[in-house]
Amino acid sequence: MASKPPGIQELEEKTHALATPNGFTTTDDSGAAAVVAPGLTDASITAKISNIVLTRKTPLFWFAGFIVGFLGFNLMMLAITWLLIRGPGVWGNNVPVGWAFDIINFVWWIGIGHAGTLISAILLLFYQQWRTSINRVAEAMTLFAVMAATVYPLLHTGRPWFDFWMMPYPTNFGVWPQFRSPLIWDVFAVTTYATVSALFWFVGLVPDLGTMRDRAKNIWVQRAYGIFALGWNGSTRHWFRFERAYFLLAAISTPLVVSVHTVVSFDFATSVIPGWHATIFPPYFVLGAIYAGFAMVLTLMIPLRKLYGLEDYITARHLNNMGKIMLVAGLVVAYGYFMEYFSAWYSGNEYEIYQYFIARPFGPYAVVFWLMILCNIVVPQALWFTRVRYTPLLLWIVAMFINFGMWFERFNIIVQSLSRDFIPAAWGNYSPTVWDYSLFFGTIGMFIMFVFLFFRFLPSVSQFEMRDLAWRLGTKKQAGREDMMQGADVAPAPGSAD
Fold it and tell me: Residue 311 CA to chain centroid, in angstroms?
């Protein structure tokens, strides 16, 4: 067989490396894992994602997960009912620990919701393609986490039927909220965050709701999706208005990533309690929220990715990127821990020194402190290793450690600081009751229940964004092949004229 000219041989080898069914490969130009798997077309993307919802056969694991969540939701309702009958005395709150599980879990849930806004809004504005497959799940998780968080401030006031007094509305009483209180700032921050997040999530759903309406076979299902699709028909005018609204809401949501948890941190930083009075709290809380949020996204996404067969859409590239973000956020959180101790030592304040160097590491809640260090600093160092970031099970285990660790951190900040303040005669310990645990596990159950309802009735991956991404990647690779063909230095065949 005659040998091929050198230029042709090299060109065919490069072309073979690029030749995949949809024009893009499982790796990008740098050799990293691709954002989506090869061979995806508009039809296959739409069919796979929509069939998860429109299928008549609901998988057994969905019923198992939903039942667990529903039982937890009922436990939450039982705990709330008993709380309203007997009052906040059923909790373990006391003097001096007036804030306990109620505020611990409020801050924990609000932090979990931050990853949704970061993935959806900020990464969208920076045109990060890898956000496409996971933004819908992260946005839904944000809403459900905010719902769980809202339960606590509404109840811990002791008289939740008067909670509307916290809103500034004109009345004959002339009573207005205390706007100088960070607790009132929480009301406005969380309300704004929930409203904008819900709008952003719904607007992003509209094109996919139109697709679900058109693919549904049942007339009632068509009408249900059609109502919420708002007459979407995919016209140029609709796409133009959609993109303007979507990017506008993304721009509005971006400052909320910083502002909401900053306001939450003011609940502590504006006080004089040892362990709270620190200017590092706002950035420390924000990065901690992102840390916890990404951990929860991975906690949900890794098993559901496997159960629903979404490995072609949520690839190893997504796991690797989120692992890197968690690693960076974890290092910043560790720096925050260090600066807390440095500030206490450098200040020379005997109360701060006692709080940080004696009470926390060696006090009655020392186990919680060292578990926080283990879960938030020691274990996440495994994310330096590429194998851990690319192995779903190992990454899921690290994410679970971070979930526990961030809860321990909130316990350490709130309970430990309140139990050991200025006067030893006022010191006291805190022990949660069965109703504290019931309400906490109940909110987790409610969260799980809504997650499974979301996967069952709404597209969990953005169909229109996945189609657009597949087209863009395919076009980019196709253009790369054409440029390579035109610019290849092909040697003349033997015997041909020069």
Answer: 19
